[in-house]
Design goal:
Layout lengths: L1 E4 L12 E3 L2 H8 L5 E3 L2 H32 L3 E7 L5 E6 L1 H12 L8 E2 L4 E3 L1 E10 L2 E12 L3
Parallel strand pairs: 4-9
Antiparallel strand pairs: 1-2, 1-3, 5-7, 6-8, 8-9
GO molecular function: rRNA binding; structural constituent of ribosome
InterPro entries: Ribosomal_bL9, Ribosomal_bL9/RNase_H1_N, Ribosomal_bL9_bac/chp, Ribosomal_bL9_C, Ribosomal_bL9_C_sf, Ribosomal_bL9_N, Ribosomal_bL9_N_sf
Function: Binds to the 23S rRNA.
């Protein structure tokens, strides 16, 4: 029996794939669980339309990510923090603060989960930080941490 998958099924295929399976497997497992539909002309057109809509949505998201990347790529963010005698910062710089600084400087909101920082920054210096805006679009910002006066 030919069926079109409407959900990913490990070992058989992904959404939109048309596969041949035994009648019993299709009628007793795939179709009742909402994993597949019979591969009729109408069902195939319906699933293809959904795939087209998903593709257009992904293209819009990628274009938006590229637009944001153009604005923030190469941006230098300066942060002043009080430091101790050893050169360590009082308090660490987190992804939330970096996202806030990007918003202040470039006027663009970036989700803090998209900022790739392995651990909070606790020392002075310059750091190149990757911002993963989309699976195919990355931007790099430079974080310049300078000492400020302790009050």
């Amino acid at each position: 029996m030919r069926v079109i998958l409407i959900k990913d099924v490990p070992g058989y295929g992904t959404f939109g794939d048309i596969i041949n399976v035994k009648d019993g497997f299709a009628n007793n497992y795939l179709i009742p669980r909402g994993l597949a539909l019979p591969a009729t002309e109408g069902n195939i057109k319906h699933v293809q339309e959904i795939l087209k809509q998903k593709k257009r949505k992904l293209e819009r998201e990628k274009a938006k990510a590229q637009e944001i990347a153009e604005k923030i790529n190469g941006l230098v963010l300066e942060i002043s923090r009080p430091v101790g005698v050893t050169g360590k910062l009082y308090g660490a710089i987190t992804v939330g603060e970096i996202a806030e600084k990007i918003k202040e400087t470039a006027g663009v909101e970036v989700d803090k989960r998209k900022i790739m920082l392995r651990a909070p920054i606790k020392n002075l210096g310059r750091y190149n930080i990757t911002v993963k805006l989309h699976p195919e679009v990355n931007a790099t910002v430079t974080l310049d941490i300078k000492p400020s006066e302790v009050k």
